[in-house]
Amino acid sequence: MAMGRTEGSGPTAPAHRAGPARRQVLGLAAGLVVSAPLTAAAAPAPVAEAVPPPFDVAAENGRPGDPDWRITHVGKARAIEGYADRTSVLPGEPLGLRVSTKAPSYTVSAYRMGWYGGARARLVWRSPTLPGVLQPAGRVDPATRSARAEWRRTTWADTTGWPEGNYLLRLDTADGERAQRYVPVTVRSASAAGRMLFVNAVGTWQAYNRWGGADLYTGATGTSGSRSLAVTFDRPYTNARGAGQFLTYEAPLLALAERIGMPLAYATGIDVARDRALLRGAVALVSPGHDEYWSPEQRANVTEARDAGTNLAVFGANCCYRRVRLQESVVGADRTVVCYKDDYALDPGYRRGLPPTNDYRRRPSPEPESSLLGVIYDGYPVDAPLVVTRPEHWLFAGTGAAAGESFRHLVGVEFDRIDLRYPTPRPVEILAHSPVVHKGRNTYADTVYASLPSGAGLFATGTMRWVESLEAGQAGATVKHGLDAGTGRFTRAVTENVLRAFAAGPAGSGRPALDNVSLHYGPDGTPTRPASGV
């Protein structure tokens, strides 16, 4: 694969912004833009503009929502699918789409995801009917078993007028089958100063994407020996009808944060890695339910922000576990996620002196994730109740929880705990200490709060099911994992407490943690009292 060229056979990047005559603006009250087809000559290009005022999350969510954003008909294999040229764009930047369909024509609808009175999305833009083309099947690089869709660009989306936020672009075939798929994209914030940065874990989405036959776990043989050593954004997602892991591990948290009007900024993990200044002055960074794959650059920039007073809220488990390298693809920069794991010594980048692409805690460059997050990943799979041990803590205000109260199935499917064999910031307070059995081993999952020397607060749930549980008991929500309405009320209340406190500034300064680790663990990481089976 020629890694130096910038594009395939599609139209080149536009040279100027389309004039007003190229667009029709309809439904101004709803902010809906319907664009005429954009050609290579007419497609918009970013221009220098005045810095806009801070984005008003509450005002945006006060607009009418569109509950019909959901996919209702998947259609047959390869009926329609696509991907975007970039994982994120600034408002007003052109977004190239590469779509393949068996239908003669299709449309693209851009939905901004949020709360919107419970509708959960707002239609911001819709394309005209576009000509369909069936593009080639995926190709696999024999060296890395990386699958890619070498497709030409089929259309542009002009993001002028699109508010910052998380988007699902829905592809709809314009034939009798009416097949649908999503393409996720982030309209990112130029700066998170004074705001909470909501980070889409797109590297992790891609790690679990098996489009073309393999992800970073398994491949053609169904074993780890056939897995990809690198995965690329130059392909659609097979997960969640094209949405990756967004709908499961991120959308419920986003909806809650926007419902209560948190001052959000938006970016992907790739943006955090690329732009050291993005987090400067941010009040908090919000990591969603599954945020496993981080580059060293992302970790360094988050650590720098935390040590400057930015709060860190981790609403999942297994966070910052895998060390990856971002490199270019034929489509653009930072569109390949490299992770050789236990085979890191075979990685050509490592042989050139770059960091190993294996687990952060492992040799030859051990950097356990606990030094950043307080907790460390302890296993998979588990299913257990979350058990409250500090109900008087301010983060549990309004929950009505009592000491020893448990919430069924809330710990799973992966979990974290305090383990003093690894570097652990102190003081740290264990708020929930939940017995679990992992492959016959009795251990615990820990929900924690820490206050750091910079004044920053740190919250980590210790379970991957936290974000999923936010939907439990909500009207129209699908029950997952046996999570009940009481669990949903509990996690929503705690999450609101975290977000409101962290939005106010360095939480650790005014709310110091009362270290209680010694009540639960010895210095060798052994629990001070045996964990009983669950």
Please characterize this protein's 3D structure.
With 534 residues, the protein is an alpha/beta fold. It is built from 11 helices and 27 strands. The protein has helices at 57-61, 202-207, 246-249, 251-259, 269-274, 296-306, 348-351, 370-373, 466-469, 485-503, 507-510; strands spanning 23-25, 33-35, 80-84, 88-89, 94-101, 105-113, 121-126, 130-131, 139-141, 146-148, 155-158, 165-173, 180-187, 196-200, 230-232, 264-268, 284-287, 293-294, 311-314, 322-323, 325-327, 336-338, 376-387, 406-417, 428-438, 441-451, 457-460. Strands 1, 2, 4, 6, 7, 8, 12 and 13 form an 8-stranded mixed β-sheet that branches. It starts with 22 loop residues before the first strand and ends in a 24-residue tail after the last helix. The model is unreliable at 1-31, 33-42 and 46-50 (pLDDT under 50).
Q: What's the gist of this structure?
A:
By secondary structure, this protein is α/β, with parallel strands linked by helices. The chain is built from eleven helices and 27 strands. The strands form seven sheets. Strands 1, 2, 4, 6, 7, 8, 12 and 13 form an eight-stranded mixed beta sheet that branches. It has a seven-stranded mixed beta sheet with strand order 16-14-17-19-27-26-25, sandwiched between helices.
